Amino acid sequence: MTDLKVRKLPWEFDESVPFQWNRENPRFGIMMNAVSFLAPAFERFIVSSTRAAMAQITDPATLEEADAFLRQEAIHGRAHRNHTAALVKQYPGLKQVLVDLDASYDRVLKTEPLEYHLAYIADIEATFTPLFSVMLNHQDKLFDIGDHRVGPLFLWHFVEEIEHRSSAKIVYDAVVPSPWYRLRVIPKVVAHVMGCFSMFCRAVDTHVPAADRGIDACDMIVRPKRLTSLFERSELPGQFEGVPRTEVITMLYRLARAQAPNHSPATEKVPAFASEWFEAYEQGKDVVNWYRPARVAG
What we know:
Elements: H1 26-54, H2 60-90, H3 95-111, H4 114-137, H5 139-142, H6 151-163, H7 167-175, H8 181-184, H9 186-207, H10 210-213, H11 245-257, H12 272-282
């Protein structure tokens, strides 16, 4: 029986929500906005691919895991569409990038086989626990300083990603016979994700005034000669400002290790904040309003 819980939370955003919700760390703010814009298309891709995979799965426990996994992801996608809808109302030009991102993932669905879809999802999902754990371990430095309405959306999304950290690989292993196939397609998967991120950054710089975004989003595009960008210290803080460099280096190692064919996501260390969040939810805390309104930044 799956341990996943499907939580339907009332995420609502209006035109008073700022595009740059994290003025103290604008790079992190842009990075999280990219999650909101990419998530609806990616989550829809997950739902479609997982449903197709379920037609080939006979084990009841795996089917139950897959069903809970796709339902969590579908809810994530809807929540982020609510966030992006509020931003599109303020900057109508951003609507096209949502259309383009949907089209990009639709092309992958139409032109690649199911085994590639499942490998893509398993590869990306494997990165989330190492990446989001660092963010949640330092949520006071990264989320607490931002807009009180936006930060909780990402806290919820990321703890649930950690909760279902094994689901994508469970589905992949049930359908794709080769554990090495995931590794072989990583370059193609990364290229597609980076292309989607670049698409988002170009749209932001085109349609959101500089004063409202705080930085040029395209400066965050990681190019071959800028792979050290996570460690740069300039007049603007890096995405992981306040996080010890040793932890970022460890995160990079864990990201690479997570792609090993024999790696089990279940062995990844869960951040203490995730347990705190789940306990708060079970106790009936209003996790949508995790922060008091008085803590609005900027």
